[in-house]
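Q&A log
Question type: sequence-to-structure
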Amino acid sequence: MKRIILAIAALLFHAAVPAAAQTTLRIGLAEDPDVLDPTLGRTYVGRIVFASICDKLFDIDDKLAIVPQLALSHETSSDGRTVTLKLRPGVKFHDGETMDADAVKFSLDRHITFPSSFRKPELAAVDTIDVVDAMTVKLNLKNAFSPLIAQLSDRAGMIVSPKAAKDAGDKFGLKPVCAGPYKFVERVQQDRIVVEKFADYWNAKDVTIDKIIYRPIVDSTVRLANLKSGSLDLIERALATDLKEIKADSRLKLALQTEIDYQGLTLNLANSPAGKDGPFGKSPKARQALEAAIDREALNQVVFNGEALPGNQWISPKNPYYQQKFPVPARDVAKAKKLLAEAGLKAPVAVDFMVPNNPESRQAAEVIQSMAAEAGFDMKIRVTEFATALKEAEDGRFQAFFIGWSGRVDPDGNLFVFKKTKAPQNNGFYSDPEVDQWLDDSRKVSGVAERKAIYEKIMAKELDAGSIIYLYHRPVIIAHSVKLDGYRQLPDGLVRVVGVRIRP
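Response status: OK
Response body:
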């Protein structure tokens, strides 16, 4: 009888103690990511999701210095052709498999050889990969390759479970298995991506939030309204025009940075008949005319309240690689009209102008449309869902595409895949043998002065006949609830969740 009474008392005690409340972080994204496969992914919002599920060999800090993640260290031989990585022991993938040198070799080989891989040009210098021991990998390079470690601090350095990747094949992106702080649970296209805390994460003590729900909400006004109502806890890419409203709300906090990105116009020079037969395919002077028609500072003031940084190169004017010899040009409508006439094009020159479906891009496109009209261009805006726009660009179904790049630590990451002949993100089909050689040369030297001298030659050609008109560098504007503690914003714009806590 006594045992029964004690048992009942114990049950009543446990029933009276509430279970620890599960914490959920709800993040509003500006677009729906593309495929969640680090070998095939190419979107900025995809990188935000990857930050929670797929650790990389290296990461960056707030000064853009390379720091360890899955790799503890790297050592480069004196001739620059061998790079040895020491790996972090005790790391598990989400499926329970061990992350070791064999897994690293598998993942890097997959990035290099998988059909349609966007990582292939990022790792083009890697010839072979040797497993030295369980925690050591040696990368044998075709030639010295100065951007390599920077490449391994992004998707090229994400390590996937060999077992899961082999089993899934080209469907791996439907249920990615990596070694990050959170494991993938589900995805409903255009609605949500759900991840849950991985108990065996190597740095589990700094992961306190149980679940993250990513919700793509294209309209920034709706995103902000959801944050203010408490339906979201954090939103990425809040608008500069909303800064005053966010600052006035005591329930919200701001995290600001200047991105290492660029935003601009990709022009179709030769990708499909739309490019070859279009104005930019017919004459480089049409490209020069469009650039001369645009007032970058006016665009900054109207769309960003002056918070963006006008630019004309693949890196910002604050970057040590910026070419001071080629400053941001002022608007010159008379010059634009003259160039159009020299190109043999009669105004109005019709341009199929593809624009991703988000308020900021639409507003900027409308300002560009108005400016270009004064010079003789008829920029016919075609608003297109983001992922669809990427596919349209790959297939050459555009003449001008308002698109940017989220930026990389090393300038090579903002340049090579867009300018090298037949590179996977060279959607304008720009091709110049000299530029191809200079791009290769820039990867073989490591000094800033040496590389900058090579980039100067590339920039001179880009200004005359390139496929991208660089316009500005956006501010990173992250708004979040005051209940979030420990959130830090790094210059790459990504949302990192390790170390973040939610207060009751």
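Response note: Residues 182-259+476-502 form a domain with the D-Maltodextrin-Binding Protein; domain 2 fold (CATH 3.40.190.10).
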